[in-house]
Every structure is written in C-alpha cells, then in structure tokens.
Design a protein that fits this description.
This protein is an alpha+beta fold and 71 residues long. The protein contains 1 helix and 3 strands.
Length: 71
C-alpha cells in the first residue's frame, strides 16, 4: 500500500473518530485514484481522496463540481 493511501486512511480514521461516517471507498489496482466519501455529523458529504489528477471527488461523478484539497 502506498504511503499516500496510508495517509488517506489515517485521515479517515481521525475523521471517523470525530463523528464522520464512511459512505463509500473507491480504489483498486485498475484505478488511478483512491477516495473515501464521508458524511459529517451534520449530514454534509465530503471526500478524502488522492488522485493523479485534480478535480472533483471521483465517486461523485455526475454530481456538481466542488473544489478539492490535496491530502
């Protein structure tokens, strides 16, 4: 597992311990990204992702574009 994926997983662990809920994990050897979609305690969706390209969270394809911050 790459160091970057480990960083995403560590961030997700911190967020879930603070009350976030994991909705979906998307990644695999045939994909160029790894993303975890979460829900905060107030019901807002957000994504922790790593990708070889910048853009919207990969699991939200077809949904409105939202800015992302690199991990």
């Amino acid at each position: 597992m790459s160091v970057r994926v480990q960083r995403v997983n560590a961030k997700v662990e911190r967020l879930t311990s603070a009350g976030a809920t994991v909705l979906r994990t998307l990644g695999g050897p045939d994909l160029d990204h790894f993303a975890v979609g979460l829900l905060d305690p107030e019901g807002n969706e957000f994504c922790v992702a790593l990708s070889h390209k910048r853009g919207p969270c990969p699991w939200r394809e077809g949904m409105p574009n939202r800015p992302t911050r690199p991990v």
